[in-house]
Amino acid sequence: MTSVIESTRVIREPVGAGLTRVWELNEVLWEGDTAFQHVVIGRTEQGVSLFCDNDRQSTELSQVTYHEALLVPGLLLADQVKRVLVVGSSEGVVCQMSVAFGAEVVDHVDIDAECVKVCAEQLPYGYTPAELAAAERHEGPVRVHYTDGWQYLLDAAADENLRYDIVLVDLPDEREEEAQHNRLYGEEFLGMCKAVLAPGGVVITQAGCQTMWRNTTLVRSWQRFNDTFGTVVYYGSDEHEWAYLFGRADEVDNPVEKMVDRLKTSSYVPESIDADALRGNSVPPYLVRKSYR
Question: What is the pLDDT of residue 239?
């Protein structure tokens, strides 16, 4: 692990076949190889930004919009939110949002301890170093576990007393090529997540991009969710480029209106989601809907 002040000035992020997005970094705050990925944190025109293996993960400008779209619809869809499991999401923002919503226990599982620690040290959002240290000691509602998400789910399923109202999986996009995290997108892993749900609980995943030239992951995730869950809700951010899926084991009538009603009494007031957003952003793109009949 190395800290670098001046090296990378441009990051080329792949966004589709034959397409890249160029990020100009005004300053590199940290760069290094962890045991699992190459991490860069630097200043861009969107503020301090996190890149893993050249993929932008979050930026100071848009991280609230991203994390609220990822988490809030699921919080509103669940019958209750007392226990939350987060797999990935190194910055820790969704863990903090879950506590603000009223969660009593948030288990944060991330295989890459170095990345989590660097995020706490360098990012102006998410965990502070002191907050992360407390979570590592399991002091307070957030408890950090540096372990493989697959193994954690296997162990949790074997413990009948360990069930979650929210299981959230926030990882880099599924790769066409072989990648360690691809297995955490498949139907077997979704079934493992479903197995640890409390009654009325919700599984959440970052499901990819809505655009037709980059929607392969979203189409796959849509098909897998509909094969696995009795109720599936889509949320495509209207101010970001990402889409998210929410699944309940049981069948719920008019789930979006249930979410709208819960929003009225939510202790966490979103900055980027209201009732109109919940209704308007819950219709999947045509090509995604057409993929599953």
Answer: 93
Q: Residue 98 has which token pair?
A: 């879950």
pTM of the prediction? 0.94
CA-to-CA distance for 32 and 39, rounded, in angstroms? 6
Phi-psi region of 106 (alpha: psi -120 to 50; beta: other; left: phi over 0): beta
Distance between CA 279 and CA 238 in Å, rounded?
11
For 14, 64, 208, the CA distances from 91, given in Å and listed in that order, are 22, 12, 19
Distance of CA 270 to the CA centre of its chain: 16
Produce one character per residue of 9-48: b if its CB has 16 or more CB atoms within 10 Å, e if not: eebeeebeeeeeeebebeebbbbbebebbebbbbebeeeb
CA 257 – CA 269 distance, rounded (Å) = 17
Asked if 143 contacts 105 with a C-beta cutoff of 8 angstroms, the reply is yes
Interval 186-239: pLDDT, tens: 788 899 999 999 999 999 999 999 999 999 899 999 999 999 999 999 999 999
